[in-house]
Design a protein that fits this description.
- It contains 14 helices and seven strands.
- A seven-stranded mixed sheet has the order 3-2-1-4-5-7-6, sandwiched between helices.
- The longest helix is centred in the C-terminal third of the chain and has 15 residues.
- By secondary structure, it is an alpha/beta fold.
- It starts with a helix and ends in a 5-residue tail after the last strand.
- The chain binds S-adenosylmethionine.
- S-adenosylmethionine binds next to helix 3 and strand 2.
- The site of S-adenosylmethionine has 22 residues, from helix 3 and strand 2.
Length: 316
């Protein structure tokens, strides 16, 4: 096993709140779409009877290694883990003969083991190769993207996914450096370029924060994955099944909030105003944020927002 799989720990955010909201039937089948280091999964298993089942997913091979090898291996016969992305949840479960589940949990973003391992290239706090892929077996790294994309595309990514006011300046500086024969290859090189291009500092925030967030979201197609995962929940959840999503920044939370709001409304089709309105497929059960004690113990939980919805009997 790769040593990194067990070397770094993850403190689970909203552990009890999420599992309380998710598990309504101890005999049910549940999906943890973001296994990480299994904090939520372990508590879900504690809540299930012998008949219950937990299917876990993660796109990071190291998360899979942590669940299947060494001291952190999960040997519970009710549990299985699958290396895929939650955007692919419907075909993944179909291949396992599962078409309906009682709950789907998505604890979005990256885990501490990913951020804290310099080799993964997620953090401007350490120097390492500028990779940022959660699934290191496929796709393009952040460095590869910055080596080939044009200035406009780089600026759009940094503006749209990082909400960075100086996106154009950062993109120009990156392209100028590349054209000078010295493309950025490491996290330190990227944060140095950004620090020079970003003119106003936000209090308590590293100038590279927004650019790193943007590239991570882009490289991992995080928002598209989220849209797809939410849509899949409508097909997969049985009546009364729960959707629980924990997000860590406003771009994610906006997507979750809008999706639940749209699916919790019975809408009249404007083109056919006398037809039956589109039935509500979800009922929103609200929003929860970590309490003061959790934020003090785990500052990373500060920005977390959990939203919960329940599937109605309306057809998908
Ligand atoms: C915040 S961590 C989850 C932590 C976990 N709940 C725990 O308590 O240990 C997010 C995990 O989800 C995975 N992930 C993020 N997006 C994913 C996606 N689209 N498909 C599958 N896994 C994803 C990441 O690789 C990471 O391991």
């Amino acid at each position: 096993m790769s040593t990194a799989a067990n070397d770094y720990l993850h403190t689970t955010v909203l552990l009890h709140e999420a599992v309380d909201a998710l598990v309504t039937d101890p005999d049910g089948t549940y999906v943890d779409g973001t296994y990480g280091r299994g904090g939520h999964s372990r508590l879900i298993l504690e809540r299930l009877s012998d008949k219950g089942r937990l299917l876990a997913i993660d796109r990071d091979p190291q998360a899979i290694a942590a669940a299947t090898t060494g001291a952190t291996r999960v040997t519970d016969p009710r549990f299985s883990i699958h290396h895929t992305s939650f955007g692919q949840i419907v075909p993944t479960l179909a291949a396992l003969g599962v078409s309906k589940v009682d709950g789907l949990l998505l604890d979005l973003g990256v885990s501490s083991p990913q951020i804290d391992d310099p080799e993964r290239g997620f953090s401007f706090r350490f120097d390492g190769p500028l990779d940022m892929r959660m699934d290191t077996t496929r796709g393009e790294s952040a460095a590869e993207f910055l080596a080939r994309a044009d200035e406009r595309h780089i600026a759009e990514v940094i503006r749209d996914y990082g909400e960075e006011r100086f996106a154009i300046q950062v993109a120009k500086a990156l392209v100028a450096r590349r054209e000078g024969g010295n493309p950025v290859r490491t996290t330190r090189e990227l944060s140095d370029v950004v620090a020079r291009a970003v003119k106003t500092r936000e209090p308590g925030q590293d100038p590279a924060t927004r650019t790193f967030q943007a590239l991570r979201i882009f490289v991992n197609a995080e928002l598209e994955e989220l849209e797809q995962g939410l849509k899949s929940a409508l097909d997969l959840l049985d009546v009364g099944g729960r959707l629980v999503v924990i997000s860590f920044h406003s771009l994610e939370d906006r997507i979750v909030k809008t999706f639940i709001a749209r699916e919790s409304k019975s809408e009249v089709d404007r083109r056919a105003p006398f037809a039956e309105p589109k039935p509500m497929r979800l009922v929103s059960l609200g929003r929860v944020k970590p309490g003061e004690t959790e934020v003090r113990a785990n500052p990373r939980s500060r920005s977390a927002v959990m939203r919960v919805a329940e599937r109605t009997e309306a057809a998908a």
